[in-house]
Design a protein that fits this description.
The complex is a heterodimer of chains A (about 325) and B (about 140). In chain A, the strands form two sheets. Chain A has a seven-stranded parallel sheet, sandwiched between helices. Chain A contains eleven helices and ten strands. Chain A is globular, with a radius of gyration of 22 Å. Chain A is α/β, with parallel strands linked by helices. Chain B has one domain: 3-Layer(aba) Sandwich (Rossmann fold). Chain B is about 45% helix and about 20% strand. Chain B has a five-stranded parallel sheet, sandwiched between helices. The two termini of chain B are about 15 Å apart. The chains are: A alpha/beta (about 325), B alpha/beta (about 140).
Chain lengths: ~325, ~140
Amino acid sequence: MHELLAQVREGRRRAIARLITRVERSEDAAREATQALYQHTGRAHIVGITGSPGSGKSTLVNQIAKAFRQENSKVGIVAVDPSSPFTGGAILGDRIRMRDLSGDPGIFIRSMASRGSLGGLARATSAVIKILDAAGYDIILVETVGAGQAEVDIARVAHTTVVIEAPGMGDDIQSIKAGILEIADMLVVNKADRPGAANTVKALRMMLHLGGGLSLRHHGETMTVSAVDGEKDPPEQWQIKVYETIAHEAAGVPELVAAIHHHAVYLQDSSEWFEREKDRSRRDVTELLQAHFMARLQAIVSQESREKMISAVAAREMDPYTAVEKLAGDVGIS
Amino acid sequence: MDQDKIRVLVAKPGLDGHDRGAKVIARALRDAGMEVIYTGLRQTPEMVVEAALQEDVDVIGLSILSGAHTALVPRIMDLLKQEDMLDVPVILGGIIPTDDISKMKALGVAEIFGPGTSTTHIITRIEEITGRKAVPGA
């Protein structure tokens, strides 16, 4: 493992690929890799690309990657496709749309199966991002599974979230529903040459307008800034805009890439980059703590006595809160 | 929980456009519980090896119906050698004349599946070659 980690730091591609496999396979490997590489991460700009199946995510990722390569940035791509809930198998087909990128040593593409995670990413995706970050990739494009409305995990791992819509996906009330559109730092209407594209653009712009144009994402949540109660002017706010692209011919891509750059500058200038890092860290630590305490509990309290407690709850002899108090008391954290 | 999935690259190198067979195999391997990286048509040997390297696959599956295996397979094996990846088994499906089978095996191809091979047989052979199970713990 030690040698592998050293080779990853040198950017050796087979070492990167092998470490990713280990991290996907086991939580212990993810821990070891993260502990060793964490100090070398935090440099890459992580860009999430999400949207419904067939909206053109992979094709757009292909174009965005090409644009960044022209600026000499090294680009890592993590493309997630769904695992079958029945067999656990998967077909990972995102590379089909990325054949333009082959043969370029400045690009590393890795396909991941979601392996049962429901938020649009795989459990190991954030560890894989850290590996690519530590290996020296400047931009990391993370393509989610084809997302419906509620797969919003990407906003928690990316600095910049791009939400892609294709024309003809429903009436304009869809655009004001809660969920995926709320996590967008920028919106893209792809296949802009298709009928209905203008209506989709209009519906999305209306949605942004209804928000008053003054809502901004802060700490991963949408906050509305009141013009009245601020004692001083709020700092420059990020304006969510709608971009039109035709991914297969790269139309609109330069504008989108410029916006991605602009967003990175905005995040850094407004200290939101650090705020987002802090939120991510808070979530990482909280989740690991939960897992850690759970593991401790399972190590200390036998399954038998846990089962006994659960049966008591089922038989209405004890309420679930009391059961938890008793169990937590056994681990010494009541 | 540890997840030890078999990852298989399914690639169609060469210029013929018939990928139905490759798709049937990809689907069958998926249904067996494997993760299939499907790269699509008209892959160059360089693209195949690059994808196999980045995806860290356990098996490279090639589908060739054009008769170009005599040119493509040696090139792929050569590139695998350059990348120090000869430990990754290569399996070959499609139209491979009987006379060529021993040549392909001499090049290092682990297994050749001709027309009419059942998908169950392919799955079993992949499990045997990798020494792993498509559904871990099964």
